[in-house]
Automatic annotation (TrEMBL):
Record-level GO BP terms: fatty acid metabolic process
Similarity remark: Belongs to the ACBP family.
Organism: Coemansia erecta
Keyword Isomerase: no
GO molecular function list: fatty-acyl-CoA binding
Record keywords, A-Z: Lipid-binding
Protein name: ACB domain-containing protein
Occurrences of domain ACB (ranges): 41-122
Pfam families registered for this protein in UniProt: ACBP
Length: 122
């Protein structure tokens, strides 16, 4: 099973997400996936990352931070530690750090579940 995604799709998958992180996640899933389950989960995860941007109700800051942390973990990304005066960046980093150690596929599933809950609440 192969997972093909164009460069244009990479650029638009998630607002503010570097395409390189998404590309790395796709390559990792493709090379370590014998039965296609990781690629299927990744496809659902990326679809959820698109869906979250279309919600009509704005999630709370805590939910946004959780989504950010799960998204970064789901891509296997490590954000850079923000500077002292970057208060928003610091909160995002702390949220990510709180999910540190979570397996990529677990983070992806938790992200999908969180987005589904948000969609139901609308």
């Amino acid at each position: 099973m192969s997972f093909v995604i164009t460069n244009e799709e990479l650029k638009t998958l998630h607002a503010g997400s570097p395409a390189a992180e998404v590309k790395t996640a796709i390559e990792t899933a493709a090379t370590s996936d014998e039965d296609g389950k990781k690629q299927e989960l990744l496809a659902k995860f990326l679809a959820a990352s698109k869906e979250v941007t279309t919600l009509t109700k704005t999630p709370s800051n805590d939910v946004k931070l959780t989504l950010y942390a799960l998204y970064k973990q789901g891509l296997g990304a490590t954000p850079t530690k923000p500077g002292m005066l970057d208060f928003v960046g610091k909160k995002k980093y702390e949220a990510w750090e709180g999910k540190k150690g979570l397996k990529v596929d677990e983070a992806q599933q938790q992200y999908i579940d969180q987005v589904e809950e948000l969609k139901k609440a609308e």
